Amino acid sequence: MPLEIVAKDSVTIKAIKTALEAESLFVKPIIKEDSYRIIRTSIDEPKELISMFPGVEFREYQLAPSRNGLPVNGRDILSFHREYFSQYVKDSQIVEEELLNYLPTKYSIYPPMLLFNNSEKKSLLHEKVHKFFSNYNIDRTQYYSHLLNDFAPFKELTIIAINKPILVEDTLRQPHNLKLLYRDDGQPLDEFDDIWCQVAQNEIIQVWNPMYTMFSRGNIKEKKRVLDTFQDVEANDVVDLYCGIGYFTFSYLKLGCRNLFGFELNPWSVKGLWKGFDANDGFIPKTDNKGSVSRYRGDKEQYCHIYNENNEMSDQRLQEFRNQSTSGELLKIRHINLGLLPSSQQGWPVALRLLGSHNNWDVCSLSTLHIHENVSIEEINDGSFVKQTITKLEILGATRYQFNSTHLEKIKTFAPDVWHICLDVDVTLAATD
Ligand SMILES: C[S@@+](CC[C@H](N)C(=O)[O-])C[C@H]1O[C@@H](n2cnc3c(N)ncnc32)[C@H](O)[C@@H]1O
Which positions fall inside the SAM-dependent methyltransferase TRM5/TYW2-type domain (predicted)? Predict the structure, then answer.
């Protein structure tokens, strides 16, 4: 099956299109999907695509014939709806005004789930949609089945759900507002413990249960930056204080870190992370069959230790690890990831405590904190965010450390004029007289 590239950044899109055109591999048109652009190619060999565009997100596509004989337009949901409902109501203006104005046009494909956006104005559950279905005797189950089988028939989709924003105040980031509307696999709608979605980003597969764990596509850029920038990870140790389903954990493991210590409160995220190990069979460490404590990659000394508990326990857990596995020897903590929004400040003193108790500064003289926060554009542009962060770290570290901010990455917008950023801060021991 031919492959299509999912891209966001306009410079990348242009470069990909130009490169494809030069080889006569570009398939018109470029399709808009949420804030992404889908660039179709006539390449059907993943290796060929990866060698041309290393690290891009891609997937298969196919314009398959539909079961009911209606023409299918792979990803254009509006055309699909126009065509589908024209068999019930011939007057296209009525369909447009009484139905299409209220149906969602944005969705994500997270196999096996087709996830629609949901707002007050556009929803599969909008009262106007209910009214239209009942006025024209349209069977909702049949419609859902066609959506799964004819609209996106190449994706092995069996579930339709609708999405609402994640509540900021929910520490575990569980998408309580996700609602299942239809299952084509014979399972009841109130059974969802068996649903595991998968998406590949930067050639790393992420696995999660969408009812219990969030997935944010927009972090792809930051994961790529980690993969491209931090080769110094190899043979060093990394702590991921909010490891979730492994957005960054897998990137650090792929870079060859020696020990990865991950902390996560949500048991469902941890389950997804373990499933991710199986899905990424090949370059991610394999299980040592000793349960959920550590996994290793055969030929290399590489271990991953996941603790399904508050990161406040990390100091104690690293001490236990050192006592049991290294006869008390200190670690080489080269990176500490702090990926919690809207703020990771809870983890800052935890991170400094870990460096103070467990890092061997003689062999690992520099450790980098990756601080994720939501920050207003004013505070980014006038430098006050960086300044205040360094001041806060200096207070926490007393006079022991020197902090040097090296990079601020704007990852994605969180709200108008508010950015999800990652600030890299290098920590070294302060000079003593
Ligand atoms: C933004 S999500 C992290 C996303 C993550 N990088 C991933 O791959 O899913 C933040 C995660 O931190 C977890 N969390 C929040 N506070 C925590 C704490 N004090 N200790 C450990 N985990 C925590 C939440 O359960 C949530 O899964």
Answer: 151-429
Residue 298, domain member (yes or no) = yes
Given this model, what pLDDT does residue 65 score? Answer: 43
271 and 173 within one domain = no
Number of domains in the chain: 3
Is residue 190 in a domain? no
pLDDT digit string (tens) for 201-230?
A: 888 889 999 999 988 878 888 999 999 999
Say yes or no: 219 and 147 in one domain: no
User: 52 CB less than 6 Å from ligand 1?
Assistant: no
What does the pLDDT read at residue 43?
81
Of 81, 80, 44, give the one whose Cα is nearest residue 59: 44
Give the CATH number of the domain where residue 418 resides. Answer: 3.40.50.150
Of all protein residues, the one whose alpha carbon is nearest to atom 18 of ligand 1 is 310
On whether residue 350 sits in a domain, the answer given is: yes
Atom of ligand 1 nearest to the CA of 242: 12
Shortest-distance Cα residue to atom 24 of ligand 1: 172
Looking at the CA of residue 219, tell me the nearest atom of ligand 1: 6
Identify the CA nearest to 338 among candidates 419, 238, 214.
238
276 lines ligand 1 (CB under 6 A): no
pTM of structure: 0.78
> Integer distance in angstroms from the first to the last C-alpha of the chain?
66
The atom of ligand 1 lying closest to the CA of 208 is 9
Query: Looking at residue 369, what is its pLDDT?
Result: 98
Give the model confidence (pLDDT) of 15-51 as tens digits.
888 778 766 677 777 888 878 889 988 787 787 788 7
Residue 347 belongs to some domain of the structure: yes
The Cβ-side half-sphere exposure at 402, using a 13 Å CA radius, reads 10
* Residue 240 CA, closest ligand 1 atom number: 6
Place of tokens 């106007």: 128
Residues constituting the chain: 433
d(CA 318, CA 331): 9
Q: Is 162 in the same domain as 218? A: no
Q: Name the residue range of residue 8's domain.
A: 3-53
- Alpha-helical segments (H) within 23-121: 46-52, 77-86, 92-98
**Ranges of the chain whose pLDDT falls below 70:** 22-24, 62-75, 153-155, 165-177, 281-300, 433
The response to whether residue 245 sits with its C-beta less than 6 Å from ligand 1 reads yes
pLDDT of residue 428: 98
- Please tell me whether residues 170 and 234 are part of one structural domain: no
